[in-house]
Amino acid sequence: MRPAHRRRRASSLATAALLVLLTPLALVAAPAAVPVALAADGSLVSGFTTYSVEPAERRVRAHVVLSVENTKPDLTTISGTTRYYYPSWSIAVQQEARHVRATRDGEATVVTVQQRSGYKLVLVTIAPAIFLGSTAMLVIDYDLPDGGARADSQVRVGEAFATFVAYAHGDDRATVRVIVPSGYEVTMQGDPMRAHVDATGTTLTTEDSVNAQAWYAVVTADRPEGLWLRTLRLPIAGQDRVVEVRAWPEDEAWSSTVVDELTRGLPELGRLIGLDWPVSGPLEVQEAYTPLLGGYAGFYTQGGAGALDQIRVTEEPDPFVILHEASHAWFNADLLEGRWINEGLADQYAALVLLAIGGAPTSPDPVDRSAAAAFPLNSWPPPGRIDDSAADEREQYGYATSWMIVRTLFDEIGAERMRGVIAAAAAGEIAYIGRPTVEDQGSLVTWTDWRYFLDLLEQRGGSEQAAVLFRTWVVGDEEAPSLATHEAARAAYATLVERGDGWLPGMVIRSAMARWELGPAQAQLDEAGQVLDLRTEIASLETALTLTDGGVLRDLYEDASSSYDRTIAVARDELTTLGRLTEANDAVGAERGPLTTIGLWGTDPASDLAAADEAYRSGDLKTARGQAARAAALIAAAEEVGTQRVALGLGGAGLVVVSTAGLVLVRRRRRIRARVAAEAPATLGDRPGQGQGDQQA
To answer: Which residue positions in the chain have pLDDT lower than 70?
Structure first.
């Protein structure tokens, strides 16, 4: 996993200059008959340079041995002979060089040191001068003292860390050796050297002679055991968490600042972010030599394979940087993909915490989308070394723009909703909420990039600005069409949710939206709209009948996982059933004539209608239609049945008189009750209020 980085650029690692060997020009006395001249272009020089790292002395000691031979032939003309010579020799050394001294063939000689841009020029006097065929053995010693933390010097030499830039001396026949004592892990950048490690330490040597004017190496030595260690136990997300602060023992200011900022800031970070502490073991925070971070002020590296999560912060312990890097414990590719997202979140929460613990307010630098350094944030590459102004401007733009976007969104939706967005991302939840549970985003897609972040901001955070911000600052030309299509689908989705009035779209829509399969999503949105259209018609009929389907249609609507075909079919079936129920209800509730009343003796269409209603509520539409049809059929046939019953009454039971005021039945009295019972029509005896009492009258 790539590490996260702080937005501000630190001083970059100075590349050793390619220093040209200089031969100073000066005249010395010579016999008048023999003209003399400097032999600036005629020498054979070999050199052997040794650098010894001496932590106890807080220095690197340089020892340069040069063999300088004059190979410039004398020049004889008709005017005489000119002899060429060297009265002195010079070398370029590191600008940090101190205590320079030299000998010529074992004898001390005069040394002059001149400050130049980026280096020092050491001029060694050669007396007597070197003429043709002569050789001088020059030995030059100097120290590279520890510059101390935050110094402009490129030399650091301490108990836990050492670094310096090594030069070569000796024209094309130069060799270099570096000696580092035991206990240090030695690395290097620049031209190659061979390493030999034994009980005494590490020795680096050039494999062959090198060109002194072009060769350089940056040597770094780490000794973790020498670091000052402070173990913190901080209350983060409800539990004590272990943070190990490791600093150079010589730099109390760094350790004091870092311990203070972490002690006050990390618990507040955990509270504002609202997630559990994501680091499995101790979090290690270590001081780093500024140039080694490649132009960044801090790095967060996730552990893995048993390694600790580590923050490396430069010698300049900026409180904002410390909190920014600490927030990357949460904001990294495990949460959301996309460098700009995690950097923007880290900056925003670092600023919030810094303000909460009494620090100065901070805000992103102004950004201009038309600036030469501008680019779509989705194309921001992984961190690389900041070694020129173009790279610096690009990184500054990326960090400032990322923070500006996140801050704008935070200000829009507020801390609570942003916490909900982050929590949903951490849980891997789909942005589009359904029921009864929230589905897993990972089961739908393999990415959690800017599209997922946008969905979460809109669906969970309620942002109305996110799409505009993304369109302006985030997406490139290739992504812009999909964003435009998404905006149209999202508008249709929002309309559907609003029309649903509490009914949430089914997984068939929500999964397509989450996958940004916007064509299929639009088709399903149209089908869901048909369901809601049918629901409107259904609701009107249900209201008139004081009925409800008990949530059957809503369940089908919200649980739709592959299509809305069945939901539409059931909705239409409900509509048909409600039509039957309406007809039956109208029939049962209509005013009845005497013959209809007679025809309904012994039946209960209202009971059938009630059974139909109950079946509808339970979702048994077939039974509901059947019961409604039975009730309607009874009503429809009742008058004919009543007529038949009246006819039977005239033929066997006596005189029937019908009037609008009611119905009166007059019978002749029979003496034998059994005969009366046998001859009386059964339907008449079934009337309410008749039966045995009527026979006894």
So the answer is: 1-41, 650-697
Handedness of CA 144, 145, 148, 150 (dihedral sign): negative
Angle, alpha carbons 321-326-329 (nearest 5°): 140
- State the total domains in the chain: 3
Q: Which two tokens stand for residue 44?
A: 């054979």
Give the residue numbers spanning the domain of 687.
650-695
Phi, psi of 573, deg, nearest 5: -65, -40
Which tens digits make up the pLDDT trace of 397-442?
Answer: 999 999 999 999 999 999 999 999 999 999 999 999 998 788 899 8
Burial classification of residue 333, based on how many CB atoms lie within 10 Å of its CB (0-12 exposed, 13-18 middle, 19 or more buried) = middle
d(Cα 89, Cα 66) in Å, to the nearest integer? 10
Pairing of strands 75-77, 80-94: antiparallel
Q: For residue 574, which of 608, 618, 609 has the smallest C-alpha distance?
A: 618
Write the DSSP symbol of residue 123.
Answer: E
Q: Alpha-carbon distance 602 to 583, whole Å?
A: 22
Q: What is the dihedral of CA 3, 4, 9, 12, to 10 degrees?
A: 0
Say if residue 207 is in the same domain as residue 231: no
SS3 content of the chain, % helix, strand, coil (to 5): 40, 25, 35
Distances (CA, A) of 672 to 13, 289, 669, 679, 692: 129, 126, 9, 11, 14
Among candidate residues 427, 452, 474, the one where a domain is terminated: 427
- Assess contact for 19 and 92: CB atoms under 8 A: yes
Residue 115: inside a domain: yes
Cα 219 from Cα 213, distance rounded (Å): 18
192 and 315 part of one domain: no
What is the per-residue pLDDT for 41? 67
Structure tokens at 200: 């005494």
Nearest of 532, 527, 536, 538 to residue 564 by alpha carbon = 527
Beta strands per DSSP E along 146-213: 156-157, 161-167, 173-181, 185-190, 194-198, 201-205
CA nearest 217: which of 167, 154, 151, 146? 167
For the chain, report the end-to-end CA distance as a whole number of angstroms.
Answer: 102
Residue 208 belongs to a domain:
yes
Q: Cα–Cα distances in Å, from 351 out to 392, 407, 446, 545, 605?
A: 22, 10, 32, 60, 74
Residues in the chain, overall count: 697
H helices present in 428-564, as ranges:
450-455, 466-469, 480-500, 507-514, 518-545, 552-559
229 contacts: CB under 8 Å, gap ≥ 6: 244, 245, 246
Q: Residue 21 phi/psi, 5° resolution?
A: -65, 125
User: What's the pLDDT at 40?
Assistant: 55
Domain end call among 396, 427, 458: 427
Q: Is the peptide bond before 267 cis (omega within 30 degrees of 0)?
A: no
Surface-to-core class of residue 318, CB atoms within 10 Å of its CB (0-12 exposed, 13-18 middle, 19+ buried): middle
Query: Are 243 and 385 in the same domain?
Result: yes
User: What is the 8-class DSSP label of residue 146?
Assistant: -
Largest CA distance in the chain: 185
CATH code of the domain covering residue 373: 1.10.390.10
- 233 and 152 in a single domain? The answer is no
Res 270: pLDDT: 96
In the Cβ-directed half-sphere of 249, how many Cα atoms lie within 13 Å?
A: 15
Q: Which residues have a Cβ under 8 Å from the Cβ of 382 and sit 6 or more positions away?
A: 2, 339
Q: Is residue 420 part of a domain?
A: yes
> What kind and span of H or E run contains 420?
helix 389-427
Question: Rounded to whole angstroms, how far apart are CA atoms 304 and 280?
Answer: 10
Q: How far apart are CA 355 and CA 320, in angstroms?
A: 10
The verdict on residue 271 lying in a domain is yes
In whole angstroms, give the CA distance from residue 492 to residue 237: 39
CA dist 311 and 327 (Å) reads: 10
